[in-house]
Specification:
Keywords: Membrane, Transmembrane, Transmembrane helix. By secondary structure, this protein is an all-alpha fold. Helices cover 80% and strands 0% of the residues. The chain has one domain.
Length: 244
């Protein structure tokens, strides 16, 4: 599959996530579990590492548990359980590598890459926390629009040295406009959200352009969902630190 399809998958995932935050809590739990499963299945394929099924289970289960916990943990510590699931997932990755034994192919790449997958899968719980935070979903919408602009910029078939600053600047400009039109969020926090979210997403685009070989559907799905899902934690913490 073509690399641009990753951006399309990211846009679809983003639309589903943002729309889901406006529904009943159970909807976001289902979306969170599905997103974690997509990251779990696809991330090892994108990295092209061995033991894909086992690592997929570790990454997916860690993220799903983090999402469920974020939906039911009493306020205000919506993400209090997330570090525990990240730690458990990382430990599980090391256990998998120990079981594989010494001298196995791509052992270091598999360990480091899978730990990164656990982190991305678990951080997505921030979308659920952001939706629950004060019952106000304005920052979710601002972050979602910023992410959409960055993803659209990433679809341009221009060099990364052009697309990267374009995506960051565009996301940083759209965020305050969205804040003024759709919410009472002040300009500075909105700009921070836009720039941070845009920076993360265009960074993942660089990972795609550096990868050699064709991508299968699982790799496209995992790489399309992973960064979009993970930036939920960024919008939540910025909302909590700069606005609340």
């Amino acid at each position: 599959m073509k690399s641009w399809s990753i951006g399309v998958v990211g846009l679809v995932a983003l639309a589903v996530i943002v729309a889901g935050t406006y529904g009943p809590p159970a909807v976001m739990v289902v979306i969170g579990v599905l997103a974690a499963a997509a990251v779990g299945v696809g991330w090892p394929h994108f990295l092209a590492v061995p033991a894909k099924k086992t690592l997929a289970a570790v990454i997916g289960l860690s993220g799903a548990a983090s999402a469920v916990a974020a939906a039911f943990v009493p306020p205000p510590g919506f993400l209090d359980a997330t570090p525990a699931f990240i730690g458990a997932g990382v430990v599980a990755v090391f256990v998998v590598q120990l079981i594989r034994g010494t001298g196995q192919a791509q052992r270091l790449e598999s360990t480091l890459g899978s730990c990164a997958g656990v982190l991305l899968s678990c951080l997505g719980a921030g979308w659920i926390a952001g939706a629950r935070f004060n019952g106000i979903k304005e920052m979710v919408l601002v972050a979602g629009l910023s992410a959409a602009v960055a993803l659209l910029a990433g679809l341009l078939r221009w060099p990364d040295r052009v697309v990267a600053p374009l995506g960051i600047v565009a996301a940083g400009l759209v965020a305050p406009l969205a804040g003024l039109v759709f919410s009472d969020i002040s300009i500075v926090p909105a700009i921070v959200v836009g720039v941070v979210v845009g920076s993360v997403l265009v960074s993942f685009r660089r990972m795609v352009t550096l990868r050699l070989g064709r991508l299968n559907f699982a790799a496209v799905l995992g790489m399309g969902v992973a960064p979009v899902w993970a930036v939920g934690a960024l919008s939540y913490f910025i909302d909590k630190l700069l606005i609340y």
